[in-house]
Amino acid sequence: MKNLFGILFCVIFTGFVYSQNPSPAKDQDKPVLISNATVHIGNGLIITNGAVAFTKGKIVAVGEVSKLGIDVAGYDKIDAQGKDVYPGFIALNTILGLSEIEAARATNDYAEVGSLNPDVRAIIAYNTDSKVPATVRSNGVLLAQIVPQGGLISGQSSVVELDGWNWEDAAYKMDEGIHLNWPYMSINRASATETDEVQRERIQKNLNNLNDLFKNAKAYSQIKNPAEKNLKWESMRGLFDGSKKLYVHAYNVKEITAAVNFCKEYGVKMVLVGGNDAWRTTDLLKEQNIPVVLGRSHSLPIRDDEDIDMPYKLPVILQQAGINYCISIDGFWQVRNISFNAGTPVAYGLTKEQALMAITNNAAKILGIDKQVGTIEAGKDATLFISDGDALDMRTSNLTQAFIRGKNINLDNIQKQLYKKYMDKYGLKE
Predict the structure, then answer these.
(1) Using CA atoms, how far apart are residues 160 and 360, in angstroms rounded to an integer?
(2) What CATH class does 19-88+374-430 carry?
(3) Angle 40-334-165 (CA atoms, 0-180°, nearest 5)?
(4) Is residue 9 pLDDT above 70, yes or no?
(5) Where residue 1 falls among pLDDT bands split at 50, 70, 90?
(6) What is residue 20's predicted lDDT score, i.e. its pLDDT?
(7) Quick check: 7 pLDDT over 50?
(8) Where in the chain is the domain with CATH 3.20.20.140?
């Protein structure tokens, strides 16, 4: 059996080796004008017969073609008649570039040994040679938050561009937050391995460990130049001066409420990740101004007696409550479907532009990069793409060009290569 698995791994891995990842794009060297398109700004506004001009990686003008107000002589011109222009999608809570083949342990580098690892940095493990990001960006995801996994405190996440020769090239905003997996606080009375008392002791031990760590780290943060540096506490300094956010992964009412009170006690900026029960705690989240990173819409509710379509309705509930939220998909290869997960709640009350904001502007605000990306506006990075169909609908989404800070991205990837290979083999035409 071991030999069989070894052979299967070699076959799969060989396929990855011989498929070529596109070379990273070169910096923009000539101004570009996209015209005659429907431009989705990303803040709820749409410009029909619109144009976008950008140079040196920055957007210089956006508006109707006839009112752009700049001299476009010398620009490379792209006629996008009948097409749509969107800001690049932003995926939160992913392990893109940290995992390649789930069944091959040697290709997974997203978790560290131990339970309390605030000093672990996901960015230095990011693999720009991974085949997966190229497949994801073909569906419009141009930026991603890469997040460590495991333990009570997993470590620090960073935002990367899905293009670059190495992690230094790809890094967009490094070590922007720390991720805490809030302990599950309910007692499983059906457990065959742990008594109620053992479970209570485990829960209390985890909470005590978190409190001890945060008390020490907060006291340490008040010392400007400690004689001896503690790496764990040093990495948490940003939580207490407001330069970092604490991403708390919690799902049920009990855990969400406890996490909110915990963050309030220590004065740290909280972002709720997961939040299946966010619809039950809207007043609390609104009062404390806590944004929510929702998981995938294409999933089942967490309770048997909930509405079967609750994951589809949850974004609508948060939208109506005035809570900032975004839609994400955990994992890595699944991230290519984030736009379709954002599109589904449109059938439940979101407008298409609100759904778009859930994976662009809202996501940028949560990450603290909304001054650079998230919308198509003058002065921001030219991180955007052109589609000849609705990018939130899997039946019509089809990217024709994409740009990251003005760089013209090669949209080829391993899946397209295999598709072409076997179409050629069987003499089929598209």
Answers:
(1) 15
(2) mainly beta
(3) 80
(4) no
(5) very low
(6) 61
(7) no
(8) 89-373
What is the chain's alpha carbon radius of gyration, rounded to the nearest angstrom?
Answer: 23
CATH of region 89-373, choose from 3.20.20.140, 3.50.50.60, 3.40.1180.10, 3.40.50.720:
3.20.20.140
* Distance between CA atoms of residues 223 and 184, nearest Å: 33
Pairing mode of beta strands 270-274, 292-294: parallel
Closest alpha carbon to 399 in 387, 410, 389: 387
The first and second tokens of residue 210, run together, are: 């978190």
Token pair belonging to 397: 């989404």
Question: For residue range 346-358, what is the model confidence (pLDDT) as tens digits?
Answer: 999 999 999 999 9
Q: Is residue 122 within 8 Å of residue 93, measured between CB atoms?
A: no
Domain(s) of CATH 2.30.40.10: residues in the chain: 19-88+374-430
State how far the Cα of 10 lies from the Cα of 15, in Å rounded to an integer: 8
- Residue found by looking up tokens 């506006």 in the block: 377
Spell out the residues 6+ positions from residue 245 whose beta carbon is closer than 8 angstroms to its own.
176, 177, 178, 239, 268, 269, 270, 271, 368
Which pLDDT tens digit goes with each residue over 155-169? Answer: 999 999 999 999 999
Which amino acid belongs to residue 113? V
Sign of CA dihedral 366, 157, 17, 410: positive
Cα gap 82→353, rounded to integer Å = 18
Which of the 8 DSSP states describes residue 278? G
Q: Which two tokens stand for residue 48?
A: 């029909």
Is the predicted pLDDT of residue 402 greater than 60, yes or no?
yes
